[in-house]
């Protein structure tokens, strides 16, 4: 059975923190395929200074060119209104009827997971793979996973690489150097398109 890792987010823009997490999760999980899914309008976030879906998709495609299993999926960009994980998973299930899905989440997402729309149904359609972003979070995540569903939620130990898209956008706006924070092709794309200025 094909194992597909799903990594959703605003990716506004995709940065080295995202890629670091992706590589560490892939090293432990060995997915046959990894799909990165930019959200249309994320339900949990304010969407000010959000680059267009087309630009975010293109930046993602450039960022994962060197990760053989990874590709981008524009399934959420075709809908109107907010993106909900349960709806995306139902659509993906129709596209990949026999695959096993693993939905990758960070600390904050797992800790609030039981507030998500139809979270129990999400766990019927996919395993959750949670990764700790900062030191000391691993135990908290394990406790939460035990409380919600110990069979369907996996908690991985990963080396933290704290980095936020908000901070990168702030630096770009201020004309600060972000070369260490973004994949070179993504930075080049942002500069060419004049994004986040």
Which secondary structure elements does this structure contain, and how are they paired or packed?
Blueprint: E1 3-9, H1 16-29, E2 33-38, H2 53-63, E3 70-72, H3 85-95, E4 100-105, H4 107-111, H5 119-125, E5 126-131, H6 138-149, E6 153-156, H7 165-173, H8 184-193
Parallel strand pairs: 1-2, 1-4, 2-3, 4-5, 5-6
Description of the structure:
- This protein is of the alpha/beta class and 197 residues long.
- It has one domain: HUPs (Rossmann fold).
- The protein is built from eight helices and six strands.
- The chain has a six-stranded parallel β-sheet, with helices on both faces.
- Strand 2 (33-38), helix 2 (53-63) and strand 3 (70-72) form a beta-alpha-beta unit.
- It is globular, with a radius of gyration of 16 Å.
- It starts with a strand and ends with a helix.
- The mean pLDDT is 91.
